[in-house]
Amino acid sequence: MATTLTKDLLQNCGNLNDMLVSTVGIPSALLGIVKMTLPRIYWKNMAYMIISAARDWSDIRNLQSQKIMENNKLLGRAGFIVLLGGSLFISVLTILQKILINMKINDTNSTAIYAALGAGCWTSDLSINVYLIYIGQSIQLAIMQWCVSGNDACYYHILTHLSGQFDILKMNFQNLPASNTEKPSIIHDFVKRHNHLLKICHHLEETFSFVIMCHLLTDLCFISGACKRIFFKYQVLP
């Protein structure tokens, strides 16, 4: 998909709106590749965090800890549904929008056909190929959205769980004995748990820091494209 969008830009296809869509679509496609590749590269970090989360659920000791984990689980699940549901809605809306545009164009006997994403520079001489490309781009768009949003949902889920574990650690800290001579094993377990959570934070940072940087750069491209669109739309010519 990034290749076809780059081709649109190099050939100066479509109007300003279409070129801006291509401009933002290219980094989005590359971001999807990055978000899908890096967790695989750091699969040991991911496995460590997932196994740790499973052990946390199996080692619940009291009702307060369970309540904290349940609340954070609901937050993580809500974020998961919003992110993936929103990306699916955007993908379907984009695909259906271009289908409706093409239906209106066909009614006017025009030879122009719009792709699922990018500029409408094609003609309808090879309708079968155009439809195949449209279907292929629609599938690529859906996969890209799921890769980008799925990675965000996974990251958010891990963060909410980790936040709950730090809340439990804070609660345990408040229940520590006043003297080191009283039940030293409790203090030892607390320090061990603290180091374990810090190790998870390190794995999380190592796995997702580059992804976050790429995401910020992509958002910068979105903002830049939106500003250019507003500028060219409302500029006053002398």
TrEMBL record:
One CC-aspect GO term: plasma membrane
A biological-process GO annotation: signal transduction
Locations listed in the record: Cell membrane
Segments passing through the bilayer: 20-38, 74-100, 112-134
GO MF term (any one): olfactory receptor activity
Keywords: Cell membrane, Membrane, Olfaction, Receptor, Sensory transduction, Transducer, Transmembrane, Transmembrane helix
Membrane-protein topology: Multi-pass membrane protein
Name under which the protein is recorded: Or67c_1 protein
Pfam name, any one: 7tm_6
InterPro entries per the UniProt record, alphabetical: 7tm6_olfct_rcpt
